[in-house]
Amino acid sequence: MPETVTSSPINGNASLSVALHIGSDVIAHGLEVVLQQIAGVRSVQRVDLRSLPGLIEDDETDVLVVSFDLWSDLEGIWDPTDHRTKILVTGSDLHTREIESFSSLPVDGFLALEYISAERLNDTLGRLVNGEVPLPSELAYRLLNEAYPVVTRRRRAHVELTAREKQTLALLVKGMSNKQIARGLGISTHGAKRLVTAILLKMGVPNRTAAAVQAIDSGLVPERSTGDSG
């Protein structure tokens, strides 16, 4: 019988709801088995294309694990400025995939199936919900070298942000949702959404993850603001 991973992925006090949008039944079942070994995971459910709009509308899922072959299903139905759910894209040989073609799609991290285990998935979930961008090392190396927008090292043109936008960006980099940003700034959720949208437009990035990485890389937000990355 597999040993349960008792350490929780988020500050020892997690209770995560995870949804799986996976093309292969075999892989989906395998991920379910592994996720059930993680004490910090409260629930696991499978969702198909018809169920995705309802999942998005409810906004109650902490992490959506989507297989690379179904990643494009999120195009046009997922507003990266308005949903707290983290998107984890999974697949085999991710470093060989044409990820650049999907730069407009939402993503908060990648998970390589080749190295899957309860311990590794527990660590990945922890990093994901704490605002980090988990990447397989081979994929990270390739993206850094190709200066892909999600994880870029090239210096961007100077971005002029208002004081309020800078405050918002600092909270966004910490992985906060629009609702959390609103509470932190003492404004409405709609106001927080407008600020996040303005930031994405000014920075010329497709999603919150790309904005966070670029903010740290360009010095708009000090790296220490993201917390301890281990």
TrEMBL record:
The UniProt entry's GO biological process terms, in alphabetical order, are: regulation of DNA-templated transcription
Top-level taxon? Bacteria
The HTH luxR-type domain is annotated at 154-219
An MF annotation (GO) of this entry: DNA binding
Q: Which CDD domains match?
A: LuxR_C_like (cd06170)
Instruction: Give the matching Pfam families.
Output: GerE (PF00196)
UniProt key word Metal-binding: no
Q: Which UniProt keywords apply?
A: DNA-binding, Transcription, Transcription regulation
What is the protein's given name?
Two-component system nitrate/nitrite response regulator NarL
The organism named in the record is Nonomuraea fuscirosea
Taxonomy of origin reads: Bacteria, Bacillati, Actinomycetota, Actinomycetes, Streptosporangiales
